[in-house]
Write a structure and sequence with these properties.
Layout lengths: L18 H8 L3 E6 L5 E2 L14 E6 L2 E10 L13 E8 L4 E8 L8 E8 L5 E7 L6
Parallel strand pairs: 6-8
Antiparallel strand pairs: 1-2, 1-3, 4-5, 4-7, 5-6, 7-8
């Protein structure tokens, strides 16, 4: 688990639908959704399977590895809450299991689509642990 990011990132709002996700993050585990009908792996926020339209989903542990799909460096804050945080890199990561996650890159400067990444966890001071990703040494996948 990586260090707490002491910059003033906004707090996450836990609810009954996200509790298992945040509990897993606090243990250093990345949870995604799995469709019990067709076994498709889905992003954590999914409520319906993209393959069979099933709604019977369960939480399952992901490896926490994947590859970079795209990224951008945010240099202008989208609102005042992010003023002290810029610049930062946001990205789309394709997990080894298949789902794409919108995330923040914490280490490394991306140079190519397909670069391998791995999950790390940070904690908002006084708040939730959450997954972020860092570039992994190696060749693009």
């Amino acid at each position: 688990m990586s260090e707490t990011d002491n910059r003033a990132w906004p707090q996450f709002q836990r609810d009954s639908k996200s509790a298992a996700f945040f509990d897993a993050a606090a243990r250093g585990e990345l949870f995604i959704r799995r469709c019990l009908t067709c076994d498709q792996r889905l992003a954590p926020e999914s409520g319906t399977c993209l393959t069979c339209d099933g709604t019977d989903l369960e939480w399952t542990r992901a490896e926490g590895t994947g590859s970079l799909v795209t990224w951008t460096v945010v240099e202008r804050p989208p609102n005042r809450a992010f003023t002290t945080l810029v610049p930062y890199t946001i990205a789309v990561v394709e997990l080894t299991e298949g789902p794409w996650l919108y995330t923040r890159l914490t280490e490394g400067v991306p140079t190519a689509v397909g670069q391998p990444v791995h999950v790390e966890f940070q904690q908002v001071p006084g708040g939730e642990h959450y997954p972020v990703f860092a570039l992994t040494e190696g060749t693009p996948q």
